[in-house]
Amino acid sequence: MPATSYEAVMSAEPDTPGRLLDVRDLHVEFRTRDGVARAVNGVNYTVDAGETLAVLGESGSGKSVTAQAVMGILDMPPGRITGGEILFRGQDLLTMREDERRKIRGAGMAMIFQDALSSLNPVLSVGDQLGEMFVVHQGLSRKDAKARAVELMDRVRIPAAKERVGQYPHQFSGGMRQRIMIAMALSLEPDLIIADEPTTALDVTVQAQVMDLLAELQRELDMGLILITHDLGVVADVADKIAVMYAGRIVETAPVHDIYSAPAHPYTKGLLESIPRLDQKGQELYAIKGLPPNLMHIPPGCAFNPRCPMAQDVCRTDVPPLYEVNEQRGSACHFWEAAIHG
Amino acid sequence: MAEAILEVRDLVKHYPLTRGILFKKHVGAVKAVDGVDVELFAGETLGIVGESGCGKSTLAKMLVHLERPTAGTIRYKGEDITTLSGRALKAVRRNIQMVFQDPYTSLNPRMTVGDIVGEPYEIHPEVAPKGSRRQKVQELLDVVGLNPEYINRYPHQFSGGQRQRIGIARGLALRPEVIVADEPVSALDVSVQAQVINLLDKLQSEFSLSYVFIAHDLSIVRHISDRVGVMYLGRIVEIGRDAEIYDHPTHPYTQALLSAVPVPDPQAREHRERIILTGDVPSPTNIPSGCRFRTRCWKAQERCAREVPLLAVPPHLESVEGPARHPSACHFAEEKHVVPSGPAAGDGGTGGAKSL
ipTM of the assembly? Predict the structure, then answer.
């Protein structure tokens, strides 16, 4: 019996205790004038309560599109989910009616976007925007909603919340705006937060403040967190496990400590070697040759093969499955054993 | 060391804030750059780091004469070029070229690559006679690692990394001595960034260039720079050789900045000390008295509000031998180790540093 109502989902007990999200074999494509861009090609990942999953990838790797499909905010058309399941608390979101999904957004899962200035409405005060969640989802009066907005702003440590609740987004600094985005996502205390490059637009000192706040709130509320980023440093600081994406697939997944000490995929390895170090001056940097593939013409076989230093004939013909490296790790490379040791 | 090729003294750029339409009344100024002293020596790379709004891009624009300084001097090989104009300015500009941040907006979409890279020759025809230009452009494309046959293509036919190579080729066209690069890799993906950094490295030795390399990514700056200056609110607060700044920082702002950089080594996250600064950078229209960092500094005392600390070796570090002895604009400068050291390079460890 598919549970299709919001209440049924929120009270459902998943098969694995604590499992919040289970994405299975998700496929997303975009129909464009020039052809079909296959943005997500069979992504699997899970997130448990209190856990932080970092999804790492370059632009065009499909990391944000996957997240948008999970949130149900993918632009369709041109986007189309062509296969797979997204199980939230064990129930498939993709078969659910739109009005039921809408209730899950905000209360069950919420998203923090990269660019706070363009994600906030410039003509509404931040108090109105924060309070809107309570008005829509809980039917509070505007006055009560405003009081709750002040509480939220306090919670994300915006100084003088009472005085600033009536101000507009442009009156806040970048770091403060990102705090407002976090407050908005937290307002209904969701189980799962998806943060899409939450600190990319911020300076390092402010980035440290915001990441600290996010980690603390996550611990406090025992939320699951999906952190989408291209920054290997941020990942190492906060993640429990990592999924590395390339051309719409997960090429490596592992607990955070393992991936940095012994990457099992040549792409991950190349990424780690190509970044300069803060603690010493390096020689010439290792550079992955070539460019990320065009999603309309993904190379046959392993998508990474034209750029891979280890590529053999089999890589040009057979798509590598996600091989099991050990119980917790997987690598989509035919030669993962050589990669991990070499 | 060799003679300074660029010498900047007390450089200031204030943008006036006015009110009213007909009778413009001055109501203040945005102090983007507020007294910078720095020199660039032949063949070296000077890195400038700082957060957004610290004035690093304004400094870059003044170095290439895209902005006129409000006060101060810029000397090129001893000659004051601050107020040059006309033919004299044009001659100097040939030797100081710029590479811009955003390869998507700094190339004219209606011009072919050949026109873009060859345009400097239109302005300085003495460098290359008309007949030889096409060949020169093709040579340049080859030097920066692009196929010379792409000369008739348009910018939109290239990826971000390739476009940045076009921007670099344009900067090289006049065989300048100095290249000012303002965030040249920050718009690029991680795997492409390394390619462009290696290219800049290669070109430096090939054409004996001096670089002013401006970026907010501290790891990249360390990788490419011989000396590094740290800017805060329009001033350089600390400057020195790369190891002096990164391994032996003495200014509290540099220490906070370095400690905030996420390091791609999960081992480091438990036992590293982080200095989390409180508050935001003050507005450049209203700079705090005395030391401009004091509003966010955990060491600030009464003296910091009264006395502007000068960029010099602090008196109490004067007698110290070793890397802590370098210019730092802080009354209470003190060495503090903040960058955790990862596995040594060359041991097969893959712990790189930092991001993007």
Answer: 0.76
